[in-house]
Amino acid sequence: MVNWKSQEQIDMDSMIFLKVMHALLGLYVWEFLVSLDFDLAVLTGKTRFRWPLIFYFAGRYLLLFALIGIAIALDTPSDINCQALYAFNQLAGNAAVGLASINLSLRTVAIWSQNSWIVILLVLITIGHWSLILQGVLLTATWLPGVGCAITYSDTTILAATFIYSMCFDFVVMCLSAYKLAWTPTLSGTNGAPTRLVRMLFSDGLIYFFIAFVSNLIATTMMVLNLNAIMSVIFNVPAAIASTIVASRVVRRLTNFQPSGPEMISLPRNNSGTAFMNTNAGLSNGVAAPNTTGIHVEMDTFTHAADIDLQGYPGVRRTASSAASYIEDHKPVQVI
Q1: What pTM value is reported for the model?
Q2: E-assigned strand segments in 117-249
Q3: 312: Cα separation from own chain's centroid
Q4: 284 DSSP β-pair partners
Q5: Cβ–Cβ < 8 Å for 277, 304
Q6: Could you report the per-residue pLDDT of 112-142, keeping only the tens digit for each?
Protein backbone atom coordinates (compact mmCIF):
# COMPACT_ATOMS: atom_id res chain seq x y z
CA MET A 1 0.00 0.00 0.00
CA VAL A 2 1.29 3.46 -0.90
CA ASN A 3 2.41 5.62 2.00
CA TRP A 4 1.17 8.99 0.77
CA LYS A 5 2.73 10.81 3.73
CA SER A 6 6.29 9.60 3.10
CA GLN A 7 8.81 12.16 1.88
CA GLU A 8 9.67 10.02 -1.14
CA GLN A 9 6.03 9.92 -2.23
CA ILE A 10 5.61 13.66 -1.62
CA ASP A 11 8.68 14.39 -3.76
CA MET A 12 7.28 12.25 -6.57
CA ASP A 13 3.90 13.96 -6.28
CA SER A 14 5.65 17.33 -6.45
CA MET A 15 7.23 16.36 -9.77
CA ILE A 16 3.85 15.20 -11.08
CA PHE A 17 2.31 18.47 -9.89
CA LEU A 18 4.99 20.44 -11.75
CA LYS A 19 4.41 18.61 -15.05
CA VAL A 20 0.61 18.81 -14.75
CA MET A 21 0.72 22.56 -14.09
CA HIS A 22 2.88 23.17 -17.15
CA ALA A 23 0.53 21.11 -19.31
CA LEU A 24 -2.49 23.02 -17.98
CA LEU A 25 -0.75 26.35 -18.57
CA GLY A 26 -0.18 25.35 -22.19
CA LEU A 27 -3.81 24.27 -22.55
CA TYR A 28 -5.18 27.51 -21.13
CA VAL A 29 -2.78 29.71 -23.15
CA TRP A 30 -3.95 27.92 -26.30
CA GLU A 31 -7.60 28.50 -25.35
CA PHE A 32 -6.77 32.11 -24.51
CA LEU A 33 -5.10 32.78 -27.85
CA VAL A 34 -7.73 31.15 -30.05
CA SER A 35 -10.42 33.30 -28.41
CA LEU A 36 -8.38 36.50 -28.24
CA ASP A 37 -10.21 37.92 -31.26
CA PHE A 38 -13.31 38.37 -29.10
CA ASP A 39 -11.35 40.40 -26.53
CA LEU A 40 -9.87 42.55 -29.29
CA ALA A 41 -13.31 43.09 -30.83
CA VAL A 42 -14.59 44.41 -27.51
CA LEU A 43 -11.51 46.61 -26.92
CA THR A 44 -11.65 48.09 -30.43
CA GLY A 45 -15.41 48.69 -30.24
CA LYS A 46 -16.39 46.20 -32.93
CA THR A 47 -18.38 44.35 -30.27
CA ARG A 48 -20.30 46.60 -27.92
CA PHE A 49 -19.14 46.44 -24.31
CA ARG A 50 -21.80 45.81 -21.69
CA TRP A 51 -21.35 45.46 -17.95
CA PRO A 52 -21.81 41.62 -17.75
CA LEU A 53 -18.56 41.31 -19.68
CA ILE A 54 -16.72 42.70 -16.64
CA PHE A 55 -17.05 39.32 -14.94
CA TYR A 56 -16.06 37.53 -18.15
CA PHE A 57 -12.81 39.47 -18.48
CA ALA A 58 -12.06 39.33 -14.73
CA GLY A 59 -12.34 35.54 -14.54
CA ARG A 60 -10.47 34.99 -17.80
CA TYR A 61 -7.46 37.15 -16.91
CA LEU A 62 -7.30 36.30 -13.21
CA LEU A 63 -6.92 32.63 -14.07
CA LEU A 64 -4.22 33.44 -16.63
CA PHE A 65 -2.26 35.42 -14.03
CA ALA A 66 -2.73 32.63 -11.47
CA LEU A 67 -1.31 30.04 -13.88
CA ILE A 68 1.64 32.30 -14.71
CA GLY A 69 2.22 32.71 -10.96
CA ILE A 70 2.23 28.94 -10.47
CA ALA A 71 4.73 28.55 -13.32
CA ILE A 72 6.98 31.18 -11.73
CA ALA A 73 6.75 29.45 -8.36
CA LEU A 74 7.72 26.10 -9.85
CA ASP A 75 10.44 27.25 -12.25
CA THR A 76 12.23 30.14 -10.59
CA PRO A 77 15.92 29.32 -9.85
CA SER A 78 16.30 31.87 -7.04
CA ASP A 79 14.81 32.14 -3.58
CA ILE A 80 11.50 34.06 -3.60
CA ASN A 81 8.63 34.69 -1.21
CA CYS A 82 6.72 31.53 -1.99
CA GLN A 83 4.01 32.19 0.58
CA ALA A 84 3.01 35.54 -0.94
CA LEU A 85 3.10 34.13 -4.46
CA TYR A 86 0.92 31.14 -3.61
CA ALA A 87 -1.46 33.38 -1.68
CA PHE A 88 -2.06 35.33 -4.90
CA ASN A 89 -2.32 32.15 -6.95
CA GLN A 90 -4.91 30.66 -4.61
CA LEU A 91 -7.08 33.77 -4.36
CA ALA A 92 -6.94 34.41 -8.12
CA GLY A 93 -7.74 30.78 -8.94
CA ASN A 94 -10.64 30.59 -6.49
CA ALA A 95 -11.93 33.95 -7.74
CA ALA A 96 -11.95 32.55 -11.29
CA VAL A 97 -14.20 29.71 -10.09
CA GLY A 98 -16.52 32.21 -8.41
CA LEU A 99 -16.63 34.44 -11.48
CA ALA A 100 -17.50 31.46 -13.69
CA SER A 101 -20.56 30.87 -11.51
CA ILE A 102 -21.45 34.56 -11.67
CA ASN A 103 -21.32 34.49 -15.49
CA LEU A 104 -23.88 31.71 -15.54
CA SER A 105 -26.07 33.30 -12.85
CA LEU A 106 -26.22 36.56 -14.83
CA ARG A 107 -27.50 34.63 -17.82
CA THR A 108 -30.15 33.06 -15.60
CA VAL A 109 -31.21 36.50 -14.35
CA ALA A 110 -31.60 37.57 -17.99
CA ILE A 111 -33.66 34.48 -18.82
CA TRP A 112 -35.98 35.31 -15.91
CA SER A 113 -36.19 38.93 -17.10
CA GLN A 114 -34.56 40.23 -13.91
CA ASN A 115 -37.28 38.79 -11.70
CA SER A 116 -36.79 40.33 -8.24
CA TRP A 117 -37.02 37.03 -6.36
CA ILE A 118 -34.54 35.34 -8.67
CA VAL A 119 -32.13 38.27 -8.38
CA ILE A 120 -32.34 38.27 -4.58
CA LEU A 121 -31.85 34.49 -4.41
CA LEU A 122 -28.80 34.48 -6.67
CA VAL A 123 -27.26 37.52 -4.96
CA LEU A 124 -27.53 35.81 -1.57
CA ILE A 125 -26.02 32.60 -2.94
CA THR A 126 -23.21 34.59 -4.57
CA ILE A 127 -22.43 36.39 -1.31
CA GLY A 128 -22.21 33.04 0.48
CA HIS A 129 -19.94 31.71 -2.25
CA TRP A 130 -17.54 34.62 -2.03
CA SER A 131 -17.51 34.50 1.76
CA LEU A 132 -15.84 31.10 1.36
CA ILE A 133 -13.57 32.19 -1.49
CA LEU A 134 -12.21 35.12 0.54
CA GLN A 135 -11.55 33.10 3.69
CA GLY A 136 -7.85 33.83 3.38
CA VAL A 137 -4.71 31.93 2.54
CA LEU A 138 -5.33 28.22 3.00
CA LEU A 139 -1.93 27.03 1.77
CA THR A 140 1.59 27.12 3.19
CA ALA A 141 4.47 27.12 0.74
CA THR A 142 8.23 27.28 1.28
CA TRP A 143 11.30 27.54 -0.91
CA LEU A 144 13.28 24.33 -1.41
CA PRO A 145 16.70 24.51 -3.14
CA GLY A 146 16.66 22.64 -6.43
CA VAL A 147 12.87 22.26 -6.31
CA GLY A 148 11.42 25.76 -6.11
CA CYS A 149 8.29 26.62 -4.17
CA ALA A 150 6.72 23.57 -2.56
CA ILE A 151 3.34 23.30 -0.82
CA THR A 152 3.83 21.99 2.71
CA TYR A 153 0.32 22.41 4.13
CA SER A 154 -3.21 22.94 2.81
CA ASP A 155 -6.45 23.55 4.72
CA THR A 156 -8.66 21.12 2.85
CA THR A 157 -11.77 21.78 4.96
CA ILE A 158 -12.47 25.29 3.64
CA LEU A 159 -11.27 24.40 0.14
CA ALA A 160 -13.60 21.40 -0.02
CA ALA A 161 -16.49 23.51 1.29
CA THR A 162 -15.80 26.10 -1.43
CA PHE A 163 -15.90 23.54 -4.23
CA ILE A 164 -19.00 21.81 -2.84
CA TYR A 165 -20.71 25.21 -2.63
CA SER A 166 -19.71 25.86 -6.25
CA MET A 167 -21.33 22.59 -7.35
CA CYS A 168 -24.55 23.42 -5.50
CA PHE A 169 -24.55 26.96 -6.89
CA ASP A 170 -24.16 25.70 -10.46
CA PHE A 171 -26.92 23.13 -9.88
CA VAL A 172 -29.36 25.82 -8.69
CA VAL A 173 -28.52 28.02 -11.68
CA MET A 174 -29.00 25.15 -14.11
CA CYS A 175 -32.35 24.17 -12.58
CA LEU A 176 -33.67 27.74 -12.70
CA SER A 177 -32.64 28.12 -16.35
CA ALA A 178 -34.01 24.73 -17.37
CA TYR A 179 -37.33 25.37 -15.63
CA LYS A 180 -37.81 28.71 -17.35
CA LEU A 181 -36.70 27.54 -20.79
CA ALA A 182 -38.25 24.08 -20.92
CA TRP A 183 -40.87 23.36 -18.28
CA THR A 184 -42.63 26.72 -17.98
CA PRO A 185 -43.97 26.67 -21.58
CA THR A 186 -45.06 23.05 -21.09
CA LEU A 187 -46.94 23.77 -17.87
CA SER A 188 -48.65 26.79 -19.39
CA GLY A 189 -49.80 24.72 -22.36
CA THR A 190 -48.00 26.94 -24.86
CA ASN A 191 -45.02 24.79 -25.68
CA GLY A 192 -44.22 25.61 -29.28
CA ALA A 193 -41.10 24.52 -31.10
CA PRO A 194 -38.03 25.93 -29.30
CA THR A 195 -36.06 28.58 -31.15
CA ARG A 196 -32.34 28.35 -31.84
CA LEU A 197 -31.67 30.84 -29.05
CA VAL A 198 -33.64 28.83 -26.51
CA ARG A 199 -31.97 25.59 -27.59
CA MET A 200 -28.55 27.19 -27.33
CA LEU A 201 -29.22 28.59 -23.85
CA PHE A 202 -30.52 25.24 -22.66
CA SER A 203 -27.75 23.05 -24.14
CA ASP A 204 -24.95 25.41 -23.09
CA GLY A 205 -26.26 25.41 -19.53
CA LEU A 206 -26.32 21.61 -19.41
CA ILE A 207 -22.83 21.27 -20.91
CA TYR A 208 -21.38 23.83 -18.49
CA PHE A 209 -23.00 22.18 -15.48
CA PHE A 210 -21.80 18.69 -16.45
CA ILE A 211 -18.16 19.73 -17.04
CA ALA A 212 -17.97 22.01 -13.99
CA PHE A 213 -19.70 19.46 -11.75
CA VAL A 214 -17.40 16.58 -12.75
CA SER A 215 -14.20 18.64 -12.42
CA ASN A 216 -15.26 20.09 -9.06
CA LEU A 217 -16.32 16.65 -7.84
CA ILE A 218 -12.88 15.18 -8.59
CA ALA A 219 -11.15 18.10 -6.85
CA THR A 220 -13.43 17.80 -3.82
CA THR A 221 -12.88 14.05 -3.56
CA MET A 222 -9.10 14.50 -3.45
CA MET A 223 -9.40 17.21 -0.81
CA VAL A 224 -11.64 15.05 1.37
CA LEU A 225 -9.23 12.11 1.04
CA ASN A 226 -6.37 14.43 2.10
CA LEU A 227 -3.65 12.01 1.00
CA ASN A 228 -0.94 14.65 1.36
CA ALA A 229 -0.47 18.40 0.85
CA ILE A 230 0.22 18.01 -2.89
CA MET A 231 -2.49 15.51 -3.81
CA SER A 232 -5.11 17.51 -1.89
CA VAL A 233 -4.82 20.46 -4.27
CA ILE A 234 -3.51 18.93 -7.50
CA PHE A 235 -6.99 18.86 -9.11
CA ASN A 236 -8.01 22.36 -7.98
CA VAL A 237 -6.35 24.03 -10.97
CA PRO A 238 -7.93 21.66 -13.56
CA ALA A 239 -11.34 22.36 -11.98
CA ALA A 240 -10.81 26.12 -12.17
CA ILE A 241 -9.62 25.90 -15.79
CA ALA A 242 -12.53 23.70 -16.87
CA SER A 243 -15.12 26.00 -15.23
CA THR A 244 -13.56 29.17 -16.64
CA ILE A 245 -13.13 27.85 -20.19
CA VAL A 246 -16.70 26.57 -20.43
CA ALA A 247 -18.22 29.67 -18.80
CA SER A 248 -16.21 31.95 -21.09
CA ARG A 249 -17.31 30.03 -24.16
CA VAL A 250 -20.94 30.28 -23.05
CA VAL A 251 -20.63 34.07 -22.72
CA ARG A 252 -18.97 34.40 -26.15
CA ARG A 253 -21.53 32.17 -27.86
CA LEU A 254 -24.40 34.22 -26.49
CA THR A 255 -22.72 37.53 -27.30
CA ASN A 256 -21.91 36.43 -30.85
CA PHE A 257 -25.31 34.81 -31.42
CA GLN A 258 -26.72 35.67 -34.82
CA PRO A 259 -30.18 34.50 -35.84
CA SER A 260 -30.40 32.58 -39.10
CA GLY A 261 -33.86 33.90 -39.90
CA PRO A 262 -37.46 33.42 -38.88
CA GLU A 263 -38.53 30.14 -37.30
CA MET A 264 -42.00 28.63 -37.39
CA ILE A 265 -43.66 27.81 -34.10
CA SER A 266 -46.69 25.52 -33.97
CA LEU A 267 -49.21 26.39 -31.30
CA PRO A 268 -52.27 24.32 -30.41
CA ARG A 269 -55.43 26.41 -30.86
CA ASN A 270 -59.04 25.82 -31.76
CA ASN A 271 -58.91 28.10 -34.78
CA SER A 272 -55.96 27.79 -37.07
CA GLY A 273 -53.18 30.34 -37.18
CA THR A 274 -49.52 30.51 -38.02
CA ALA A 275 -46.92 32.49 -36.12
CA PHE A 276 -43.36 33.11 -37.17
CA MET A 277 -40.74 33.62 -34.53
CA ASN A 278 -38.15 36.28 -35.25
CA THR A 279 -35.24 35.15 -33.13
CA ASN A 280 -33.41 38.42 -33.61
CA ALA A 281 -35.97 40.51 -31.82
CA GLY A 282 -37.56 37.73 -29.80
CA LEU A 283 -40.95 38.71 -31.30
CA SER A 284 -43.22 36.73 -33.61
CA ASN A 285 -45.18 38.54 -36.24
CA GLY A 286 -48.36 37.48 -37.94
CA VAL A 287 -47.88 37.02 -41.66
CA ALA A 288 -50.81 38.03 -43.84
CA ALA A 289 -51.99 35.77 -46.65
CA PRO A 290 -51.38 36.83 -50.25
CA ASN A 291 -53.88 39.34 -51.67
CA THR A 292 -56.87 37.45 -52.99
CA THR A 293 -59.98 39.42 -53.98
CA GLY A 294 -63.09 38.65 -51.97
CA ILE A 295 -61.38 36.53 -49.27
CA HIS A 296 -61.58 37.48 -45.60
CA VAL A 297 -58.41 36.40 -43.81
CA GLU A 298 -58.27 36.26 -40.02
CA MET A 299 -54.79 36.11 -38.52
CA ASP A 300 -53.57 35.72 -34.95
CA THR A 301 -50.30 37.21 -33.77
CA PHE A 302 -48.51 35.84 -30.78
CA THR A 303 -45.84 37.35 -28.62
CA HIS A 304 -43.12 35.06 -27.33
CA ALA A 305 -43.24 35.66 -23.63
CA ALA A 306 -40.62 34.64 -21.11
CA ASP A 307 -39.20 38.09 -20.95
CA ILE A 308 -35.73 36.84 -21.81
CA ASP A 309 -33.98 40.14 -21.28
CA LEU A 310 -30.54 39.68 -22.83
CA GLN A 311 -29.86 43.38 -23.19
CA GLY A 312 -26.63 43.04 -21.25
CA TYR A 313 -25.18 40.86 -23.99
CA PRO A 314 -24.05 42.95 -26.97
CA GLY A 315 -24.87 40.41 -29.67
CA VAL A 316 -28.47 39.86 -28.62
CA ARG A 317 -31.07 42.57 -28.91
CA ARG A 318 -33.47 43.09 -26.11
CA THR A 319 -36.70 41.20 -26.48
CA ALA A 320 -39.91 42.86 -25.48
CA SER A 321 -41.65 39.52 -25.45
CA SER A 322 -41.67 36.41 -23.27
CA ALA A 323 -40.28 32.85 -23.71
CA ALA A 324 -42.51 31.06 -21.32
CA SER A 325 -45.93 31.52 -22.84
CA TYR A 326 -47.65 33.05 -25.83
CA ILE A 327 -50.09 35.96 -25.39
CA GLU A 328 -52.68 36.23 -28.07
CA ASP A 329 -53.47 39.46 -29.80
CA HIS A 330 -56.50 38.57 -31.91
CA LYS A 331 -56.45 40.91 -34.88
CA PRO A 332 -58.83 40.33 -37.80
CA VAL A 333 -57.40 41.48 -41.09
CA GLN A 334 -59.66 42.38 -44.00
CA VAL A 335 -58.02 41.71 -47.34
CA ILE A 336 -59.66 43.43 -50.30
Answers
A1: 0.73
A2: 139-144, 148-154
A3: 15
A4: 277
A5: yes
A6: 888 999 999 999 999 999 999 888 777 888 8
